[in-house]
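Task: sequence in, structure out. Protein: histidine kinase.
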Amino acid sequence: MLPPNDVEDVLSCLPQALLRVGPDLRVQWCEEGFAAKTGVTLSPGNTLLEALEPGRSLDALERAIREQRAHSGHAITRALRQVRVQVKPTHTNGSAGAWLVVEPSGVDDEGAFSQAVREIARAVGESLEVDRVCSAAVVSLVRCAQVRRAEVFLYEEDDATLKRMAVSDLEGLDAPQDAFDPSEDPYRQALALRQPQLGIQRGYGDAVGSVFAAVPLCAPRRTVGLLLIYKEQGASFSVRELEMWSAAASQLAVAVENARLLREAQSALRVREEFMSIASHELKTPLTPLKLGLYSMERRIAAGQPVSLASVLKSKRQVDRLAGLVDDLLDASRLELGRLALDSSPLEVGQLVAEVVDHFRHAFERPFTVDVPHDGVWVLGDRDRLEQVLVNLLENAHKYSPAGAPIAVRVGRTAESARIQVQDHGIGIPGADQALVFQRFYRARNVSHRNFGGLGLGLFISHSIVKMHGGALALRSREGEGSTFMLDLPRMSAHEVRRLPRRVLVLDEDSHQEAAAERTLRAEGFEVFTVQSGAEALRKATHLPVDLIVLSTSATQAAVASFLETFATLPRARPVPILLAGDARPWWAQENAALCPRPYRPEELLAGVRTVLTREKRRTLTPVESELPLVTPA
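Result:
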């Protein structure tokens, strides 16, 4: 008996869709409304393999059709929708095949959704701890909805990795790992689009082939993580269901963000309270003796008695200490507001280190060693700020080292950086504290406020200044054995260094000859310092290395002695060559000392200067570098 002509109209009223396939899985007939009911577009000649996802469910369906037996199960479409499929074999007109009855799977139970959302809201109201909020959320989802497992993954503090914070159950062997690769779909799409995405669970035991939803946890300003919801095998997600879970995820994301903000606020309050305690103690430490010293001096002056220099110096030291504390607070405030500016210029690292260490060597009875390369290591930086960093590192090394223990400072270079190392043999820093020492107000656990003063700002400020220079400040330490701080700064390129003007110091008792030498050298691009007082000239030139000194041989013995004495005591990273100007070498000069005629003639003076600089360049450079041509200033 043939079916009535209006059978298609009747089929359109049913939620199930009808399909006829052959043993080769090719579609022989498909009802007109099949795509609207199932979301799968099929037409005669297509195969089921084009419409369904590979997996165990498709394998079972394929075997049933080929073996001509009844079957009932679920399949996953290419659009990641789960459908229920019933197979009815048939042998019409001797042709093997099967009828498939297909219906969508999934529920829209708003009562269950509402209950789950209410429980999540109640958990949020009871606690603002991240772990407790996440745990309550996944338990509520499993208890109230048709969900097999729920998990919450949150971004770590560095916003780079996702870590599992809560899971509804950990029984069995099909539990995913605590961390996963968010670059894979559908996680990547969910995080990028801030919209829920469906995926197929693979490789997790009996649940292989089931569908899960990756729902982003979207707070108002950022995405804080992912909510993963796993269905029982055979069940799927409806559109309405995903909308409800997105709403629940947004509520959870806001709770997580609020919990983190509360934790940060509580941490900030603890830091503030600790800082106020330390600051009050540190500020009172210099103020108390300063007040007593000034009171004592006031009484002596009122009584007409002399005030000793020692009392004045003690008060000055306390003022300097107080000023240092205030400067640290001001620098920390400027860094916080982004108002700390740099005044950068070319800077030779070895000379800076030599000068700073020289101040410490005179101030403290402690051995300091300095090791710098023979040739200059140049960076572009703010001299005052980098000196501040070095002073802080040396002060810490001195403060936390036993009396008499040596402190070593080394200057070197890496592939692209100038490196300064400050090594001490002091108390060291515990391993757990080493990642935190550059934070504001932080002090290591083995540092007591009673024995070691300070606000805990020095390393924070130093680290920030180095970062502003594009460099890095690192630490290597072992408790009880000392610490080594490594400061890396971007080096100037060889081309940039060659373009820097050479610095020449001209010392001549005759002002006319001195002016003539200055004109000649400046015309050739040299930077020239001239003054008849050798001590004054050398002090003016200490901030940057002097490449050459032109010294008149006709100067008086007293003037030469004054110059040599000052030259010997001023800090410098490496010896400075001298070009003697006169008719003959004086008695105090070395036999191989270079000599040029005087009165100065431009060609003879320039020839002598270039000869000395070339000799010095070849002496200091490595064999490979010495092959480079010497470029004189333009």
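The two ends are 107 Å apart (CA to CA).
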